[in-house]
Write a structure and sequence with these properties.
alpha/beta
């Protein structure tokens, strides 16, 4: 029997998922056969501005994660990344050049032109 996962429940003050991102994320999770899954957002070193987002589809939270239910989907964030993304909004764009999940982060002091990295 697997051990219980120790995680916290957060709210949309940490991250808010907008309608287009929610719909796309639900579709991706259902396509993978894990409708109860979540999107993991992590902030890692790298990119042209120093920090970048890493996103993965996961089954659920790990120890010490923060689980944020928003707009019918779940987002999981580790405590260190939460410091960088607090107050962010997640959106989705179908644009051919700059499409994909987009994070609007009020903590980003500098962003690069590709929109994939930032400095806080």
């Amino acid at each position: 029997m697997p051990a219980a996962v120790n995680f916290k429940i957060g709210n949309e003050k940490l991250v808010r998922v907008l309608d287009a991102a929610s719909a796309h994320l639900r579709g991706l999770l259902e396509k993978q056969g894990r409708p109860e899954g979540a999107l993991r957002i992590a902030v890692i070193g790298g990119g042209c501005s120093g920090l970048q987002y890493k996103m993965d589809l996961v089954d659920g939270p790990r120890d010490r994660d923060i689980l944020v239910p928003s707009n019918g989907v779940n987002v999981v964030i580790d405590p260190k990344s939460a410091l960088f993304v607090s107050g962010s909004e997640l959106d989705w764009s179908d644009d051919l050049q700059q499409g994909g999940f987009k994070v609007s982060n009020p903590n980003a002091v500098v962003t690069c032109s590709c929109g994939e990295s930032f400095a806080a």
